[in-house]
User: Which sequence fits this backbone?
């Protein structure tokens, strides 16, 4: 069985196509890696690259990408709507097939060490790779952003894991870590009242006492005039899609509002959908590894 | 992309382990084939073998299996509860990956011709491979069974497609054909009243005017004292699982009865479950080929 890891590096460039393509080429040109998707946001001035490969191929591609990004991206001149602290801002590794989270943690440590040594970029280990509880959350690590990072890393609790208590003068610092697959799941309501979406978001969010591994906010989809509960599911095996949707349906009904549809943004693992099918179809003793034909092909 | 076909040959032996293993060995020993499952029913005196492979590997395995079966299985001495007409009774070919039904039809014709020539077994093409409408349905071809087949094949409308208007004296005749994946889907009701299951089965069955590509019967699961609607879904892309389940739920409610669970027997394609997830999760613009990560690994 071949081990396969997914990686979704974010680079701090969303406007200059030459720079973006030169970075994406580092994935394209690494044997054993398959580029799945990449997309750029000009307002955020940021690009997201999605690829998969063997642990060895992901390690090579990660180091090559960091070297290319530090060469081409200068954060002293970077403007954009999205918080950022490095030329490559974050590099998550997600177990896809025949790989454990622990193996992704090991990979992230090898990558972090090499990026510090070979690209001269200090590295924070985050999420499941974090070396302390206060360093798990990316937003907390990134707080202060590139501009504040040179000072922040001098504090002992914010010293990078690799590369020393410093930043690269133009490239900043990078977060590298293992995490479970994240699913972006949005639920659209049959109302233009964004307050209802916000109330429901607060009910389901972990930080407000809702479901574990659920981040959510309410917003208005202007083009459709539809209120949306926008959700990040950070571990669908702990809180599955159907449980969130059923609660949102129930809470929306309290306002006389139906769910008109949902959106799964980007990629998600087969298992997340199989879990929903098993729940709604009420399948007894379901064994996806054996009963789903395609699992014998993987 | 590798072409992969599933085949589910049924042999008329469910008791003699040596014979069964010798037949299954023909799959095991064919390079390019993966044995997924095999199971025997002593009452039916019949075994079902499930495997997958490239079109070329399936062709080789099919011919080898027919030769072994005609060597070891003597239908003049066969007794069992299941209708049968051949030592290998039926050989369906199902498109799994990067293969069309038309390619499975072509494969079935090559296999049929070779089985007639190399195993001396006359062959009927059935289902999507049938050469006339009245020869699509396996039950109609098999009517009269082994004992009546020598006479039946003398009628022009029942002359085998390959091997002449005759049967093999001990091996009978074989049906070979292409068909979509079949899903065995049972729905268990919160009642021991089998009449309710029978009434619902009659509502959903195609032959009684119900859903296209749905075969169903009502029965009592004696070990659990539960009435069951037992269903064969012969084309889930025409009639999906969720549509059948929702109608059964609705009809059962008319008797004040709930669905307590369902069973998917054996293997089913990922897409059948993704369709259910898409429906129940109300996903807009779902694109499984791109959005389900595993589809990039296949």
Assistant:
């Amino acid at each position: 069985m071949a081990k396969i890891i997914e990686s979704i590096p974010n680079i701090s460039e969303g406007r200059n196509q030459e720079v973006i393509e030169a970075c994406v080429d580092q994935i394209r040109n690494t044997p054993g890696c398959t580029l799945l998707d990449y997309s750029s946001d000009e307002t955020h001035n940021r690009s997201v690259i999605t690829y998969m490969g063997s642990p060895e191929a992901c390690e090579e591609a990660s180091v090559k990408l960091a070297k290319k990004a530090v060469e081409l991206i200068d954060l002293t001149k970077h403007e954009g709507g999205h918080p950022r602290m490095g030329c490559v801002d974050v590099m998550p590794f997600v177990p896809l097939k025949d790989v454990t989270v622990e193996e992704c943690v090991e990979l992230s440590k090898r990558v972090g060490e090499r990026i510090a040594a070979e690209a001269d970029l200090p590295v924070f280990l985050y999420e499941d790779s974090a070396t302390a509880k206060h360093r798990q959350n990316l937003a907390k690590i990134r707080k202060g952003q590139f501009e504040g990072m040179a000072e922040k890393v001098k504090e002992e609790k914010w010293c990078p894991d690799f590369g020393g208590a410093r930043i690269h003068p133009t490239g900043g610092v990078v977060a590298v870590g293992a995490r479970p697959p994240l699913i972006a799941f949005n639920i659209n309501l049959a109302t233009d009242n964004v307050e209802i979406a916000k109330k429901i978001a607060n009910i389901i969010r972990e930080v407000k006492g809702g479901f574990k591994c659920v981040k959510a906010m309410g917003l208005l989809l202007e083009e459709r005039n539809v209120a949306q509960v926008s959700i990040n599911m950070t571990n669908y095996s702990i809180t599955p899609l159907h449980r969130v949707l059923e609660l949102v349906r129930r809470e929306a009904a309290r306002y006389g509002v139906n769910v008109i549809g949902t959106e799964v943004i980007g990629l998600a693992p087969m298992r997340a959908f199989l879990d929903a099918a098993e729940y709604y179809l009420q399948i007894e003793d379901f064994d996806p590894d054996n009963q789903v034909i395609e699992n014998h092909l993987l």
